[in-house]
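Blinded run. Sample ID left blank on purpose so nobody reads anything into the name before looking at the predicted structure. Input follows.
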Amino acid sequence: MKKIVIASNNPGKLREFEQMLAPLDIEIIPQSQLGIPETGEPHATFVENALAKARHASRLSGMPAFADDSGICVAALGGEPGVHSARFADGPPPGAAGVRDDQDQRNNEKLIALLKDRRDRRAHYYCVIVLMRHGEDPEPLIVEGRWHGEVIDTPRGANGFGYDPYFRLPEFNRTAAELAPEEKNAASHRGKALAALLARLRAARVIGNE
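Blinded prediction complete.
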């Protein structure tokens, strides 16, 4: 497994995955480099969406592919935004100029408005990663990670993306957006899920112990 396609066009996710996978002797190829369009995420669960994205990229590329589906789940909102995290607030269609940053802002504004006067601010980020070794893989590798914190009203920090400026980590007394990239990658939901995936691959001797 010398090449793996990442089934994402999210620049923040791509940046984090590339940083975490840099020590491995594996070429990471964003699906956009192969002309593979994003597929829909219509499912009610993170794992179904990740499976759909990984299968789509693997079938069209003819290569192993992995995808994550992730989001923030807020206790006071019954787990919302959950799988709807990326498009929690209404906005322009995907592909519009500047849509990613604008969408993040609208999502955060909606979340904070819904939590107004709520005392319970507990939340966690959730990530599931699915690796398909080929497009019809009957035994995809599936791993997950969680990162617990709380939602605050005032954004802090300039790193990260999405809900990170509003997601405070009690153990750091900082938001996810205030962490250095290496700190976030070591502690985050995505970092935990990816570490679990690499452990599975090493146990199966698919990759070495770099």
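Unblinding after everyone has recorded impressions. The radius of gyration is 17 Å.
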